[in-house]
Amino acid sequence: MKLPTHFKGIRLVVTDMDGTLLNPDHEVSGRFFELFDALSEKGVIFAAASGRQYNSIVSKLQPIRDRIYVIAENGGLAMFGKREIVSTPLDALTKNTILDSLSASRDIHPVLCARNNAYVTGHSPDFLRILKEYYTEFEVIENLHHFEDEVMKIAAYHFESSEKYIYPLVTDFEQSLMVKISGRHWVDISHPLAHKGFALEKIQQELGIGPEHTMVFGDYNNDLEMMSLSHYSFAMANAHPNVAKAARYSTLSNQEKGVEIILERLLQSLD
Question: For a tag site, which of 47, 121, 144, 175 has the least CB within 10 Å?
Fold first, then answer.
């Protein structure tokens, strides 16, 4: 681990979910909830930031869902309770152009991520089983191109490697959209302002909290913009090399409760 010399002055803690706060079984530890309560009593504010849909995030954090900021869909949507802070949807024409590019391979599984639901086709039962972990609310429809409601982002999944098989098909969109390799199997394509950093900056402005009082935890490329907004940026031991390079500090892996270890130190510094 690479640690700062002190932990004083932290007012906002922001943590990614998969590969960071969640353990390899996609669970939040009981100790995290204990630390959340103890730090909240001392005035520390928390935010959860993920590529997951809003409903999936709050289902993992059910006991505290109304006491935290939630950055969902990689920053495409940010909420505090029922109050919307950020919403940056895709337009319909862009959505279909992206789907056309992804259709070049039948091994790519696109997901239309709407505000309260997700939409997929049903041609892969294996993918639908995986989808249930990341999307608590989803619906199988016949044709994604014909979907006309608001879409926050398109997530695409490949069973082997998103970086190898999905990303090359969508690199051209980087000139006008946000394209993120958000996990080993996932690539997310969204509005150019739909990233975790944009949403976090809005939250910081709302709270009057700057980078010098912000702590961020992350593990993958969709966390990079958040790292630049925190003087206390931590890469997990299991982080992508890009994140390890961008973060000022490091902690143990999500399997080893790396987030909780740093929060323990933060709590001790406030006693």
Answer: 175
Is residue 123's pLDDT more than 90? no
Asked if residue 49 lies in contact with residue 12, where contact means CB atoms within 8 angstroms, the answer is: no
**Exposed, middle or buried: residue 258 (CB in 10 Å: 0-12, 13-18, 19+)?**
buried
User: Phi first, then psi: what are they for 197, rounded to 5°?
Assistant: -65, -40
Question: For residue 9, what are its two tokens?
Answer: 């002055």
Sign of CA dihedral 237, 241, 247, 249: positive
Q: How many secondary structure helices (H) and strands (E) does the chain include?
A: 10, 14
CA torsion angle 42 269 207 180 (round to 10)? -120
Q: How many CB atoms lie within 10 A of CB 42?
A: 12
Q: Which two tokens stand for residue 71?
A: 């950055």
Concatenating the DSSP letter of every residue in 43-72 gives T-EEEEE-SS-HHHHHHHTGGGTTSSEEEE
CATH of 12-87+195-270, one of 3.30.70.360, 3.40.718.10, 3.50.50.60, 3.40.50.1000: 3.40.50.1000
Question: What is the pTM for the complete model shown?
Answer: 0.86
In terms of DSSP H, where are the helices of 106-257? 125-134, 162-165, 167-170, 196-207, 224-227, 241-246
